Amino acid sequence: xxxxxxxxxxxxxxxxxxxxxxxxxxxxxxxxxxxxxxxxxxxxxxxxxxxxxxxxxxxxxxxxxxxxxxxxxxxxxxxxxxxxxxxxxxxxxxxxxxxxxxxxxxxxxxxxxxxxxxxxxxxxxxxxxxxxxxxxxxxxxxxxxxxxxxxxxxxxxxxxxxxxxxxxxxxxxxxxxxxxxxxxxxxxxxxxxxxxxxxxxxxxxxxxxxxxxxxxxxxxxxxxxxxxxxxxxxxxxxxxxxxxxxxxxxxxxxxxxxxxxxxxxxxxxxxxxxxxxxxxxxxxxxxxxxxxxxxxxxxxxxxxxxxxxxxxxxxxxx
Length: 318
Prior knowledge:
The relative contact order is 0.12. Strands 1, 2, 3, 4, 5, 6, 7, 8 and 9 form a nine-stranded mixed β-sheet that branches. It contains 16 helices and nine strands. 45% of the residues lie in helices and 19% in strands. Helix 15 (299-305) crosses helix 16. The chain has helices at 20-28, 48-58, 74-84, 103-113, 138-141, 146-154, 156-160, 175-178, 190-201, 231-238, 243-246, 249-258, 265-282, 288-296, 299-305, 308-317, and strands at residues 7-13, 36-41, 62-67, 89-93, 98-99, 117-127, 133-137, 171-174, 205-217. It has two domains: 7-217, Spore Coat Polysaccharide Biosynthesis Protein SpsA, Chain A, CATH 3.90.550; 231-317, no CATH class. It is globular, with a radius of gyration of 20 Å. It is α/β, with parallel strands linked by helices.
């Protein structure tokens, strides 16, 4: 295959000695090798740097390692990594997963087949710390249903305003789109931010590949991770204040307006609607009676911007 694109991998590391060698070896085993691997380390205190340097000396492609002078945290570390990348396509990589050997080739081919694509994402096989399958996929754990996938292919923003279904470890982005999303705000996770800004701008398609292209390792030190919850766990989770409710959409509005990205009017109205809905949910009164009236008069917002009836019941009773 004649490669049209140059490929960069942006990897962030922090005390990853336990699993990083397996991840690096899975990148080395790719049927389509990357043109460069950019690693930003957030001041590891274990053997992570030693392992990376050994790999760097042996890899058949360029490996560039940056060691932060101060800890940046995940979001800003990924921002630094992508800004150091020089490829046309940028693949995000966590330090503890394992890539299927065809991942880069399959995803690059999707960009070649879909010139208007700005982001390509895949599903993932959820595995334990020993890479044994947990019996379900990432999309099943979110959940990201077939119905939602069909909606997403027509209008990704409508799905993303309800919940983030994009995981950075399964994502590749055109560099021209990445350039339009920086700087990443600290209040957002890098993958959710990139997806939200690209979808808001209608800046090309976001393409889904319904195949497991990575083994997404779940272990005690995952920053986020994903888990398929049973009913009891779902009820307990409903009692908590969800991260999605706390996302700062003032930042999204300001970013889109300040950069004059000519966001379609309809999309900007949806962002404003989401922003108002988030503020409403975050400022509900403490009494159930007080919450009841407010929630019931804003049911359309719960349908458009939250998880429908589940979010209604959560806000009334918890």
